[in-house]
Amino acid sequence: MELTIHTTESAPAESKPILDGIASDLGLVPNMAATIATSPALLSAFDGLRRAVQSAELDATSREVAGVAVGVAVDNHYGVAFHSTVLGTLGVEEAELERMRAGRPPADGRLAAVYDLARQIVLSRGKVDDDAIARAQQAGYSSSEILEVVAECTFAGLVGVVDNLVDRVKLDEFLTPRAWG
Q1: For the residues 95-121, what does the mean pLDDT come to?
Q2: Helix 40-55 crosses helix 16-26 at what angle (to 10 degrees)?
Q3: Which of 6, 42, 56, 72 has a beta carbon 3.0–4.6 Å from 37's, enabling a disulfide?
Q4: 50 and 148 in contact (C-beta within 8 Å)?
């Protein structure tokens, strides 16, 4: 499927204020949002999920680790590049990024628990084994944070579906150093 990477000028009228809000928050409109703008309904869902996961109590590093896990699991090149870029700005070491991008959990036990949980959530369609939940709880994640991992998986899964549907959304320039796949 081929979709346009919209600008705020070319997007459908209902998408323009959402794109303006994203640009205000991020300083730019990422190509993923610009592509999704073809459908104002999907763009609204995308933006709602984006805002929800960013406002959650789950710490940013755990959230982004979950995003990488989902991206690798669903072959989402855009998402892996995006989450890897953010993790790099959060100070995650290159060796850890490479581990995760290769489909292996990070060495840190807490982050490994969230990586494995997110991976299981998407690969098993939510039929996660009790051990994965127990490992996440033992690593210090609350029930609320575990549910927020589900929200991140939903958001990252949406991005992955779009990325795969259009046979790869063109990476933004700021993501190309972390291209994956």
Answers
A1: 97
A2: 30
A3: 6
A4: no
pLDDT in tens, 5-64: 999 999 999 999 999 999 999 999 999 999 999 999 999 999 999 999 999 999 999 999
* Residue type present at position 107: A
Query: Given this model, what pLDDT does residue 126 score?
Result: 86
Whether 105 and 116 have beta carbons less than 8 Å apart is answered as yes
Q: Which residues contact 30 (CB under 8 A, 6 or more apart)?
A: 22, 82, 172
- pTM here? 0.94
Rounded to an integer, what distance in angstroms lies between the CA atom of residue 81 and that of residue 69? 12
Dump pLDDT digits (tens) for 55-90.
Answer: 999 999 999 999 999 999 999 999 999 999 999 999
**Residue 157 corresponds to which tokens in the numbers above?**
């899964």
Please name the residue that has the structure tokens 């081929």: 2
- Max Cα separation, the chain? 49
CA distance 66 to 114: 6
- Give residues with Cβ within 8 angstroms of 1, minimum separation 6: 165, 166, 167
| Separation between Cα atoms, residue 27 and residue 25, nearest integer Å | 6
3-state DSSP call for residue 51?
helix
Q: How many residues are given for the chain? A: 181
Only one residue has tokens 């972390």, namely 178
- Interatomic CA distance for residues 108 and 92, integer angstroms: 11
